[in-house]
Amino acid sequence: MIFGSLLKEFRLKSGFVHLSQLSQNLEMYGFFYDCTVLSRWQTGERLPTNRKLLIILVKIFVERNAIKNIQEANSVLESANQGYLTDKEKTFCFVEKSIE
Predict the structure, then answer these.
(1) Residue 70's closest CA among 50, 91, 41?
(2) Smallest Cα–Cα separation from 85: which of 100, 68, 66, 72?
(3) What does pTM read for this prediction?
(4) Structure confidence by residue, pLDDT tens digits, 72-85
(5) CA distance 71 to 21
(6) Please, how many CA atoms are within 13 Å of residue 71, restricted to the half-sphere of its CB?
(7) C-alpha separations of 39 from 47, 82, 92 in Å
(8) Terminal CA-to-CA distance of the chain, rounded, Å?
(9) What residue numbers bound the domain in which 37 lies?
(10) How many separate domains does the chain show?
(11) Is the dihedral of CA 59, 63, 66, 69 positive or negative?
(12) d(C-alpha 88, C-alpha 10), whole Å
């Protein structure tokens, strides 16, 4: 699946109506991206390459119950050409969640 489509799907499932809301959440983790960059990701014009950022996106979506399992998390990483979650990343993203 295409990264932009997944970003939009999980963003909306997370309750982020506006890209600015997602941007503010990313800022809490030390990532400062303006809405135009997020918009380019969502439309497929650009693709994020920072794996740490992608892991934080997954974590945010897990915390907000948009991503419910490792397969969905892996689909985000795979769509950005970043492979799959490592065991350490799974623990980080799904802490206090039941891993399916």
Answers:
(1) 91
(2) 72
(3) 0.91
(4) 999 999 999 999 99
(5) 25
(6) 1
(7) 11, 20, 26
(8) 21
(9) 3-93
(10) 1
(11) positive
(12) 22
